[in-house]
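Long-time lurker. I teach an intro course on protein structure, and each term I like to show students one example going from raw sequence to a predicted 3D structure in token notation. This year I'd like something fresh instead of my usual example. Would anyone be willing to generate the tokens for the chain below so I can use it in lecture? Attribution to the forum is fine with me.
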Amino acid sequence: MGRFELLVGSSEFWTRARQDIARAQGRVLVQAMTFEGDAAGTKVAQAIDASGARDRRVLVDDYTRHVLNDTFLLFSHDRALAAEARATWDMFDELQRNGVQVRVTNPIGRNPLRYVARNHKKLLVMDDVAWLGGINFSDHNFSWHDMMLRIDDAEVADWLSRQFDQDWYGKPAFARRGFGPELEIESFDGATNVANAGKLLSHFAEATRSIEVLSAYPTMPFTHAMAHAARRGVEVTIHTPRPNNKPIVRDYLLGFAAKAGIRLRLVDLMTHVKAALIDGETLLAGSSNFDFVSYRRNSEYVAVLRDPALIAEVEARLLAPARSEGTAPLAEDLRGWAPIRAAATLKAADLALRHVPVGPRIEEWVRPRRDEQREEQSAMGAEMVGDSGGNP
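-- Reply from a regular --
Happy to contribute to a lecture. Here you go:
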């Protein structure tokens, strides 16, 4: 077994990750933006609960206390969704009763503007194995096309466990570490991203031959960096889903790509993969959607990989199907003024996001009391103009 292992789809990922959790003796550290008490999330929680590891900890973002199944709890009158919310709270309560420590990142509290500043990281560390990628723990995320990267390396696992601890104690800080010529990892803290994202953006802006991106949500400044490369003659392709759960981003890309000299291909499935292949030699993968929210306010992991065997597998299992199954935009995809409206809306959201305050970064898991949750979410409903962030 090599140092890197690509798992495509939730079934592959969970079959392998469950084995790592079951074998772990020292630590099981799990972090996600979405962790719901449905069939998928419950399986993950039960595996953590059954682990014999001495250190069992779960970090879940406050997003999960406000949004389930891509639906704001405040705006839903669906009894099934309310039942799932109760099951989610029960799941975390049960983990705590059984000795698993649970904390919540980036609590929104009573300031609804903080909704857009999420801890978007997805991370698992089981003893000397670490996992990075895009999969959250919920039925709807498990149903999407996605990937996780398994890294069998004690040094990497130790470093990522220290980044986990930074979040755990509410003291995140940007960090970058190389692990030989094949791997570098960047950990973005959500507060200093703009100051530290130059190297990540340069991978796109300074490409010499080709850029190929598979992502549902790429926006500025990453698309602007790709456009800069395209103007220099670099072949730039973005594969993105036609049935996007954030259709405003698809509409933005429909308007931007053609003007920027970027080849846009629409695939007929919801892919949540976040990967970019630069010049056929450098793979960027992790939790970042390559969008303005991850650039300005989300906490993220991005791995920079140069392992030829892994890149060949990504080409064969992710990019080749996207190339063969995707199509150029069809007439029905181009809906009047939608691309113009999308571009204007995202630009306004990007400007607004610059002024979003960074609030408390951590709190202990406490089951939401119904009256407090209603008060917080009523404030959110009154003050929020739209969903400018929070792509899971």
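Some talking points for your students: Residues 79-97 form the longest helix (19 residues). The CA atoms of residues 176 and 320 lie 31 Å apart.
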